[in-house]
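Incident log entry.

Two folding requests arrived from the same account within the same minute. Monitoring flagged them as a possible duplicate submission, but the sequences differ. Recording both here for audit purposes.

Request one:
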Amino acid sequence: MTYTVDAANAPHSHELIIGFVRYLAGLGRAESTRDTYADELCRLDRQLPEGLLYACVDELVDGIHTGRRSAAHIAKITAAVTGFFGWATRPADPRLDFNPAADLPRATVKPRRPRPITTDELADILRRAREPMRTWYLLAAGNGLRCIEISRLDRADLTEEATWIHGKGGKERIVPTHPAVWAAVKDLPSGPIARTRAGAHADRVQVQERANYHLQTTLGHKTVSMHRLRHWHGTYVHQAAGGDIRVTQELLGHANPNTTSTYVATIGGAKAAAVHALPLPI
């Protein structure tokens, strides 16, 4: 776990939060999810009058809905809190004898809409981006990788034919390597594709922040993020696959095709054919 849970940032509940995060790891939940839940639970433990463990439902509602949070953020905090108390009050192994989160109002989030960048935007990004960010952008747009997957990637995971991806929650998948991606990585040295100054693997946050800063500040694409490059990938592989949502789902590494549909914008086979048909503007 990257996020540190201790008495300094969770003075009342750090031991139980640590136990909950270990439980999530045992379920195979992604590291990014575990870190997010730990962060939100620690914040509530610090800010609520008597900490997280002794909060009533009204205090939880106030702590979750304080500030100008988006509906998606509120839903994420609510999921962390309900999951934590649900785990802590399991009849088979109870840590607490009451669950104040049982009466929390259900958080509703509007369905996400696909937000792929335009091909003209992508062409400009690939033309002007510096390395190693340009290679990361190619991996996101050409092979559909998430930031966490780029952070885990080694040069040995890529061949001219296939890319071995170490995905969320410990899940792995193999996708065809786009020719432009292969051209960018074939002469790279062995080891991590995304490195720290010491040569170790950069983590997800380092990849995301560095890549997005370069996109938005250096290149001037203020509304573009790494995730929107993945939306571009999903949109165009879906088109290249003749509208086959299953092919698109497998390439993006989604467990649920409903998630895939939020990546596919409407624009007027085989997985390899879908990837190789991507019109990467280089």
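Request two (distinct sequence, not a duplicate):
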Amino acid sequence: MSSRSILITGCSSGIGLVVAQGLAAKGWRVFATARQAADVARLQAQGLEALQLDVDDSDSIAQAVAEVLLRTGGTLDALFNNAGYGQPGAAEDVPRAAMRAQFETNVFGAWELMNAVIPVMRRQGHGRILFNSSVLGFAAMKYRGAYNASKYAMEGLCDTLRLELAGSGIAVSLIEPGPIESRFRANALVKFVQCIDVAHSAHGAAYEKQLLRLKQEGHATAFTLPASAVLAKVEKALAAACPAARYRVTFPTHLFWYLKRLLPTRWLDAVLGRAA
């Protein structure tokens, strides 16, 4: 029997890399993708079946999917939309171009890739589509407005997709991590410096604290977990006969999930307003 196949985006480091390695070790045929050719070469050197895929580029998406289907004979069992980044900054300071770029990567690219594989999964009568969301997909925190919005959008789209795919054999699940060991803060720092005009912002003083957080070495919080915690949830979602709509990872995600349902909005705002 041939091994099950999965396409994963954003495998250059962090969650994507660990999930690709972990699933490959469990016998999955993993198509690990990354945006940069150098990262693809490094993944191949590690023994992974790696391809170049930039979710911001429609041609790149089409070419990668075509190559995967060529190699599998036209089938694909699962997709993990993992690629993404966070654009820091107060909502009033994020330029339109930066907000557009945030949605291109975190939402539009993931959605276009999903649309490319759904016809394949419909024909074969089964499939699993996973989206890497965040605790910030349902609990907004300040100075993360662009990222919050992109993950809220992802969650709403996936809720819709589950309803529309009912009876097709295709299951859709959201993975919702909190703080995970990755290059997320380092990448966010680059976007902050590129896009936010600190000198002319009303939030200049608060940004000093944000910059310290983004530059901090090691874990951002005491609740940070290794990327293997996400791998465990991905494996659970892929193996379940009836996968859950959401798989929450880390203590903060579980905590805020319940607080949002128990506390009045004003009280929750007070709690979230004190979060780093």
